[in-house]
Amino acid sequence: MPDDNLRIGVFVCECGVNIAATVDCDEATEFSKGLPGVVFAIKNKYTCSEPGQQEIKKMIVEHKLNKVVIASCTPRMHEPTFRHCVSEAGLNPYLMEMANIREQCSWVHSADKKRTTEKAKDIIKAAVARVRNLESQTEIEVPVTQRALVIGGGVAGMQEALDLADTGYPVYLVEKSPTIGGKMAQLDKVYPSMD
Ligand code: SF4
């Protein structure tokens, strides 16, 4: 997408005090407004809440946003939430990027609010840079062969093969050397049992 057509919206979440206590969210929001391609930025108290999500949808429509950055928590927690949210406003769900300013910032740096805020700004800046290059994606379904191939017959590979076999799938274990066991096969005792 040419830069002229970029209309990125940034939503900075306070997460109550989880983020706001150690990140100056007003400053981070103002900073976001100056990033290339950003046409809108706002702070929310709880972005994942129903009112928070309604606001995202409303702003996408009102400001004709075509890409979105949510500066909040880990994608592991709410990426599906926000993908669904932006798609309800008509945006491709893969044009949304999360900036983790909680687990990777406010929760691990509580001593110095100024420096924590600077780090949050850097994380948001990186997310905006990434979202600029994201393209729409289409989810497809492909048939899956219900068998597993484990490459490497060291301890990890053997354990993985056993775990997969326990779930009922046929497993093929491939090892390039004549014996399995990897480095473990060269040891005569292992800590802590010394077996
Ligand atoms: S989106 Fe994440 S950081 Fe924001 S309120 Fe919800 S849980 Fe907290």
Task: Characterise this structure.
The protein is α/β, with parallel strands linked by helices and 195 residues long. The protein has 2 domains: 3-133, Rossmann fold (3-Layer(aba) Sandwich), CATH 3.40.50; 148-186, no CATH class. Helix content is 40%, strand content 16%. The chain contains 7 helices and 6 strands, in the order E-H-H-E-H-E-H-E-H-H-E-H-E. Strands 2-1-3-4 form a 4-stranded parallel beta sheet, with helices on both faces. Helix 2 (25-33) runs parallel beside helix 6 and helix 3 packs across helix 4. The protein is elongated, with a radius of gyration of 23 Å. It starts with 7 loop residues before the first strand and ends in a 21-residue tail after the last strand. Bound molecules: iron/sulfur cluster. The site of iron/sulfur cluster has 11 residues, from helix 4.
Observed structural traits:
6 strands; Rossmann fold; two-stranded parallel sheet; 16% strand; single chain; 2 domains; 7 helices; binds iron/sulfur cluster; four-stranded parallel sheet; 195 residues; alpha/beta
